[in-house]
Amino acid sequence: MNLPNKTLAFIGAGNMAEALIRGLLVNKVLPGQQIIATDVRADRLEFLAKSYSIRTSQDNAAASREADIIILAVKPQHMSLALASLAIQPTALIISIAAGITTARIEKELAGTARVIRVMPNTPALVGAGAAALALGARATPADLEIAEGILNAVGTTVRVEEKLLDAVTALSGSGPAYVFLVAEALIKAGIEQGLPADIARKLAIHTIFGAAVLLAESTDEPAELRRKVTSPGGTTAAALKVFEDRHLTAIFAAALDAAARRSRELSAA
Ligand SMILES: NC(=O)c1ccc[n+]([C@@H]2O[C@H](COP(=O)([O-])OP(=O)(O)OC[C@H]3O[C@@H](n4cnc5c(N)ncnc54)[C@H](OP(=O)(O)O)[C@@H]3O)[C@@H](O)[C@H]2O)c1
Fold this sequence. Notes:
Elements: E1 8-11, H1 15-26, E2 35-38, H2 42-52, E3 55-57, H3 60-65, E4 69-72, H4 79-84, E5 93-96, H5 103-109, E6 115-120, E7 130-136, H6 142-152, E8 156-160, H7 166-174, H8 176-193, H9 198-218, H10 223-229, H11 236-246, H12 249-269
Parallel strand pairs: 1-2, 1-4, 2-3, 4-5, 5-6, 7-8
Antiparallel strand pairs: 6-7
Bound molecules: NADP nicotinamide-adenine-dinucleotide phosphate.
NADP nicotinamide-adenine-dinucleotide phosphate binds at residues 11-17, 38-41, 44, 60, 73-76, 78, 81-82, 85, 97-99, 121-123, 174.
């Protein structure tokens, strides 16, 4: 997708906004001069203007006034203040990437007329390998959803869900990178305990996760089938997998995602 003649404003120019800006430019979705980033930090804006040749401003009202698409990329606790500072055009599309802030709340704080799409991205977006779920607010249209997908696809893959499923998405893909980092930590520690030097355990663990992820993404086989293919009866992998099974690893993941989804619901309601 490209967005000819559209002006896109990022309100909040932190890590996530930068990942999206980089992805949009690399994928030629729109040129830098059609992107305006705002932030409370002047040094941050100076860095982004220099690195990406985009426009920057500390004036949220001015930036939002001229934008066709506004991406809300401030932390959830700063959202109300940021929304109050906007001066949006009636035709503007609002895309929020803030965790736990409902489309209903954004619509209400923008006086009820805005078309809002809510996105739950994740941190691999920083390296162009994100997984994001998108949900429509009450007034947003399927055409709006396509625009939002075009923007988020610049930093990874996207799925569409009903907004009520975003707590489950948060539990799976939003928090999910941390689960994989934990697996990496555990593999490195266990490898060292088996006698490997730390640097070698680290390299092998990271590239095993990376290689397995690429294989999963590129293969037409289901994860269970890929697992079976590397598990010979009576072999080493079978011995390890039996330990995971005996200690109920699948149930541990189910309980962990349940806890994350519950916390996401609590934070959204707060
Ligand atoms: N990072 C993730 O893994 C992740 C994943 C999913 C969703 N998200 C969501 O993405 C959003 C952005 O996250 P991030 O990690 O990019 O945050 P971040 O790095 O803290 O960026 C937010 C930026 O907005 C600035 N800001 C605060 N109030 C502002 C205002 N009123 N107007 C303009 N700028 C303002 C902040 O300045 P100060 O630092 O001075 O406050 C900061 O530079 C969050 O809502 C988060 O929930 C992040």
